[in-house]
Structures are given as structure tokens and as C-alpha cells.
Amino acid sequence: MTLAAARTLRVAVSPAYDVDVSPGLLDDAGRFISEKNVALIADSTVRHLYGHELTDVLVGAGKTVKVVTFTPGEGSKNLPTYGRVIGDLASAGLGRDAAVVALGGGVTGDLAGFVAATYLRGIAYYQLPTSLLAMVDSSVGGKTGVDLPEGKNLVGAFWQPRAVLADVKTLESLPARELRQGAAEVFKTGLIGDPALADFAASQIVPAATGRGPLPSEDVLVDAVARSVAVKAAIVAADERELGVRAHLNLGHTLGHAMEAASRFALPHGDAVLYGIVFAALLGRRRGYADLVQSLAQVVKGLSPDPLPAFELDDLLPYLARDKKVVGGRPRFVLLADMGEPVVVDDVTEAEMRGAWSELEEMMR
Amino acid sequence: MTLAAARTLRVAVSPAYDVDVSPGLLDDAGRFISEKNVALIADSTVRHLYGHELTDVLVGAGKTVKVVTFTPGEGSKNLPTYGRVIGDLASAGLGRDAAVVALGGGVTGDLAGFVAATYLRGIAYYQLPTSLLAMVDSSVGGKTGVDLPEGKNLVGAFWQPRAVLADVKTLESLPARELRQGAAEVFKTGLIGDPALADFAASQIVPAATGRGPLPSEDVLVDAVARSVAVKAAIVAADERELGVRAHLNLGHTLGHAMEAASRFALPHGDAVLYGIVFAALLGRRRGYADLVQSLAQVVKGLSPDPLPAFELDDLLPYLARDKKVVGGRPRFVLLADMGEPVVVDDVTEAEMRGAWSELEEMMR
Q: Which site from A11, A33, A270, B207 is most exposed, i.e. has the minimal number of CB atoms within 10 Å?
């Protein structure tokens, strides 16, 4: 057995919890979960990959495990699936002393977290993310929820996990396209809070994320996850309910969410955020902020996201108008005054959006 | 215009809010609601009685009002109705700066409160209870949620209103059966925290609640609501998340919830709790606590609840086993050591339950 890199990050929300980042953590999961009765929620793919083994680990640690599965994909992150999963917990007779264990990517974490937040008005839950995106994004912040036909994440709750176990060994099974979504998030996190991390993501993870290189070493993965979590944890701890600086994390998300919804989620989250980041750079240049358009566009192109969908801006405006970040009818954007210097703007006009969208199309098509 | 009784009770949860109790408050609702965009949620009966007028009041106060209605009754307190209502908010494009206004009884407050708790991960809401039960029970405590086929209130969240406006004039339209449900709750609240209030409820509200007398005066109604809210607010403020003394409020609820669920909600909440209170007195007598059986049973009979359903205890045990209050597989009961002295017990055996159930059947059938 090699002594691999391991990092523990404290997320100082209320109540505080730890994010443990290390290869092989799943084999040791029983040690972190104090509840005896556990609902293990996973999609059918992840159940097949890791669920049976994790069940054995938990049963071996003396726990009673109820396994609940659902069809993989963002299409399952909806109220009907939520209703079925929460009904399964009720049928199993789980009480307030039970815990939800979410094993999988962001969809699983969001869905299972919302189940935990609302079953019996809230029970304990643990996140065991198996994708890079879930490790660096949805595992910190306490956001849980599901989509509505009208848009992404329109239903949900803030609910903090008891602990997050990020076993980077699970990234070995991650398709390159999924790795890219996580790389996009590490890149974005670097842009708003740790410019060196943005460079690190571009140089160390992009090759693997585009299938042009092997998976980075476990040390590199642990480092990328831990540094991203550190940036995000500091922001979230300063603003647990998303009333202020936490909005910075939404860099690229205003346009990104609208594109995801308008594409009926055919365009994956990270790719949509990448386009959203360039869009934000274009808006920022129009306002006289530092011109980051070319340098950011180069990294985005290097990540080879799925092609920019053939939308008109008019296709996106209805989604932009109903974004959660809307204030007084105008969508809220996060722009970059410079690398590592996010600013929130509430007064972007339709004309500015049309201009930036034309430029984005020209650059990315 | 008469200068009627008016009381304001502070509920010191986080964030704190006021319960205003007064006749005619609905005419003045615009003054209490600071948000410009409002979703007014009511069942179709209450919409007809008060919703149109309230809409006029709110529009007159400069607000934009989206009215969302649903079919009256506990049968609407479920995930499908929740999904439809929250979808209506999304279709209307309401943002985080909007507020939910819940106009109606307990079902409306619980359902609309859960919508407010989870729409965009939580927006402001106001409770405008129009039943005595909603005024004294569900308007304090921050409990929101819906039922599952497996049992009552199995899904939900803690979410505090910005304000509660209890307009006792709305009680004039309340059927006697519904008034009885509220009288039962006032009685229960007195039993655990204000024995004089229990006497007051029995003498002042029971006659009207059983159709044997006129509706009490507005002064009496304001007094009953305000004193109940005061007891409940003190308990809830001491234990916002229901980890300790707040359990006392569940006097009569362990058996009550099981009977409601087993009857498919044909037995109304207050009536079920009344039987639950006598059941608790029977369990308490078996344990050597003060013998309150006859005195409580007399008040309960005086309230003429719907007949005790023809259950065997075996019909109720599955519901008792999956109650939210289950700890280590055993249902948790609140008993009375004496008037105003609730105690929580976790170790009631099946034999004790069987004995008490037989006695209850004998007394109440």
C-alpha cells in the first residue's frame, strides 16, 4: 500500500463539516458515518461501479443499508424521481436517526441532498462524490435541489452534509467528457479566487479532460480538488445563504444555466459554464474591465467543449429572465474586473447581451 | 368602527417574527407585506370567501399578485399538488424577491410554506390563517410540508414566516366541525403549558364548537388565540428544531397521527389528537402519573369528536412504527405527569399500548 496524498478541508458553515480528499476513501467510509441506518442513493451506473462494494463496507461496519437507485442523468433530477426516492425511504420505515449517503455525481448529490433536507423535515447526509465536478462544486455549499420544466435548480433547499468523502480513485472510471466538466469548474474557481489554480487546471487537467493525455496522478487530482474546495469553502463560509460574495461562484452560470435549460440539458453543465465565462469576459470588455477575452477563450477552446448550440439570444432570454439570480427583472451577471477579481452587475442591458452573444458566436462557431 | 381587542405576540426564533391577532386584519394586509411580487396561495373555497377581496387589498397596496389555487382538503397536501403549485410560481417567473402569501387553514399553510421553503431554495412567506386550528397550531413553529401515502407530514422543511396575520373575523365562516379542531388544539396547548387556558377552552369555546352555542365574542377568540400562541411561541423559541422540549407539543399526536393516516385522513386532526390525549392519560395512569383520565375524557366527550374509528391496535402499529417521533424503533409519547407537566417517554411497550387501547375503546365507543 502506497501512502498517497490526503487533504482535509474544513467548511466553516453552521454546523461545520470536513471535506476529506484522498484515494481509497470509499473503502473506509464506515468510519466517517455515525448513523446506524443508512439510505444509499446512487444512479444505476454508479451503483454497479461502486455501490455494491460500498454496501459491503457499510454492512461490515455494522450498518443497515437500504439501497435506492434511479436512472442516470440530469433527466432524473426532477420532482417525480424525488417523490419516488423519498417514498422509498418512507416505505423502508427510516426514522430521524437515519442518514442519506449520496454516492455519485452532481445530480445524485443534489437529488439525494434534497431528499435528506426534506425527509422528516431533514435528516443527516453524507456526500461521496464520484465525479470531479461533484467533488469541487456541489460537495461544498449546501445547495440541494431538483429541476423544473421551467429551469434548472428552481426547487431546493440549503442543507449541509455531515461530511464529504472525495475518493479520487473513482475518477479513473470517469469519461473524458465528464472530467472536462470538472476541469471547467476548477478553472472557474481559480478565476475568481486563485489565479494560479486556473493555470494549474489549464496545464495539468486539460490534456486528460480532452482525451489527449492520461489521467493526472492522484497527487495532482488531490491537489486540484483540495485547492478548489479551499477557495469555495472560504466563500461559502463567508456567505452561507448566498446573500453576498457567494454570488461570485456564479461566474459563467447566468448564461450557462440558460443554455443548459434551452438545450433541454443536452449541453452539459461545465461546457455551458465555459461558454458563460467567455460571455462574461465579453461583457466585461465592453464595460472597460481588463480584457481577458482571448486568454480565457483559448483555455475554453483547449477544453474542446461540446459545440456552441445554434441558439439565437432570443431563445435564451426567457430563461435568463427567470433565472434565480434575477433582481428586479434583470439577470445578474458575475464579471471579472481582472483575474481573481469578480464583480457582480445587475444592470446588463439587452443590447449588451446581444452584442456579446454575437461576438461569442463568431469566436466559438 | 369599534375598537376591538388586538394582540401581538413575538416568536423569538431566528429570524424572529410577529403573530398579530385582531379582527379585520385582512383589510390591512398590504401594510405587513414588504415584497412587491406576491403569490397568493389558497384553496378554491377560501379563495371564494376571502381571496378576491385580499387580492384587491394587495393590488391596492401596489403589489403584483399571482393567485394559485388548489382543491380543498388534506387530500391536496401531497407531492403532486406541491409540484403543480411550485411550477405555477416558476411559470409566473417569480424571483427570489417575491413572497408567498398562504391564505387558509392548516393544509394551505403547510403546503404553501413548503413551497416557500423550497422555491428557489427559499423565499419569504406570510401566513394568513383562516381557521382556529391554523391560527393556534400551524402558524407558530415553522413546520411546513406535505403527506406521503406512507403517512402524514413525512416530507417538509422548517421555514419561518415573516409574519402571521390572524384575522379572527374569518372564523365566522368556519364550520363547527372545523372550529372543534381548533378548540382541541387550544385545549391541548393549555394542558401542557397553561392549565387555566384548558379550562377556558372547555368553557368558552366548546359550546360553539359543538353547535350548542353561538360563536364566542371577538374578544374571547382573540384571547384564546393569543394565549395559545404565547404558550407555543415560548416552547418553539426554546427549541426551534424540535430537539427537546418542543416534543411536548406532540401531546396526543403519536396516536393521533397514526389514526389519521390509518383512516386515510377521514378522521380530522383535532379529533384524532383528542383521542390521543385520552390515550396518553391512560398510558400515564398505568405508569403511576396523576390520574387525569376522567377529567380529560369528559372534555373530549363534550367536544363530540367524530366517532372513534373501528380500528384494532394492530391496524395502527405500522403507522406508529414509522412516525417521525420513532426513536430506536419505539414510538415516542408525551404523557402528563400532571396538568401542565408534560413528560416524554420512549419506552412504551406494545403491551401497554394494547391495554390503553382497550380502555380507550371501552370509554369512547
A: B207
Vertex A74 angle, CA A27 and B117, to 5°: 95
State the nearest Cα–Cα gap between A27 and chain B, in angstroms. Answer: 27
Within an 8 Å CB–CB cutoff, is residue B16 touching chain A? no
Measured at the alpha carbon of residue A42, what is the angle toward residues A38 and A48, in degrees to the nearest 5? Answer: 110
Single out the residue of B103, B87, B109 nearest to residue B156, CA to CA: B109
For the stretch B198-220, pLDDT in tens is 988 888 888 787 777 788 899 99
Neighbours of A271 (CB within 10 A): 25
> All domains of chain A, ordered by start, with CATH?
7-173 (3.40.50.1970), 251-365 (1.20.1090.10)
Name the residue with cell 419561518. B160
SS3 call for A187: helix
Judging contacts by C-beta atoms under 8 Å, the chain A residues touching residue B321 are 93
Among A275, A266, A270, CA closest to A313:
A275
What's the pLDDT at A210?
A: 79
Beta-carbon neighbour count of residue A236 at 10 Å?
Answer: 23
Residue ranges for chain A with pLDDT beneath 70: 1-4, 323-329
Min Cα–Cα distance to chain A from B178, Å: 26
Three-class SS of residue A19?
A: strand
What's chain A's length in residues? 365
- A–B CB contacts, 8 A cutoff, strictly below: 100
What's residue B141's pLDDT?
A: 86
DSSP code string of A271-302: HHHHHHHHHHHHHHHHTT----HHHHHHHHHH
Chain B residues touching residue A320 (CB < 8 angstroms): none
Predicted TM-score (pTM) above 0.95: no
Does the complex come out with an ipTM higher than 0.95?
no
In angstroms, the separation between the Cα of residue B155 and the nearest Cα of chain A is 5
Contact A83 B86 (CB under 8 A): no
